[in-house]
Design brief:
Layout lengths: L2 E5 L2 E4 L4 E8 L7 E7 L5 E7 L6 E3 L7 E6 L4 E6 L8 E8 L13 E2 L3 E6 L1
Parallel strand pairs: 2-11
Antiparallel strand pairs: 1-3, 3-8, 4-5, 4-9, 5-6, 7-8, 9-10, 9-11
Length: 124
């Protein structure tokens, strides 16, 4: 069993930055990939970014490339999502997820464990 707890969300203005964290416990964190997904009001949950078990491979949705950066600290069992130049359309609940296969996959159905989410609101 893997427990994931997100933190770092909040209300910011357009152009600001935020860093989300996801702390993992349970199994060996360094052996599985981590992903960030988001769900805007009235919309389906969509992929944002993912990082492989080693950290050497990352994957981003096109709309956040160059603005967001995913990273991990295996010593702290934590994955981060640095979000810069935030836009109102980035407003959503952000979820982290763990994929025991270890690949930086963008498909939500391959992830085995999910956190409860953290709200990010970007005002214009």
């Amino acid at each position: 069993q893997v427990q994931l707890v997100e933190s770092g969300g909040g209300l910011v203005q357009a152009g600001d930055s935020l860093t989300l964290s996801c702390a993992a416990s349970g199994r060996t964190f360094s052996s599985y990939a981590m992903g960030w997904f988001r769900q805007a009001p009235g919309k389906e949950r969509t992929f944002v970014a993912a990082i492989s078990w080693s950290g050497r491979s990352t994957n981003y949705v096109g709309s956040v490339k160059g603005r967001f950066a995913i990273s991990r600290d295996n010593a702290k069992n934590t994955v981060y999502l640095q979000m810069n130049s935030l836009k109102p359309e980035d407003t959503a609940v952000y979820f982290c997820a763990a994929d025991l296969r270890g690949y930086a996959d963008d498909r939500s159905d391959v992830y085995d464990y999910w956190g409860q989410g953290t709200q990010v609101t970007v005002s214009s």
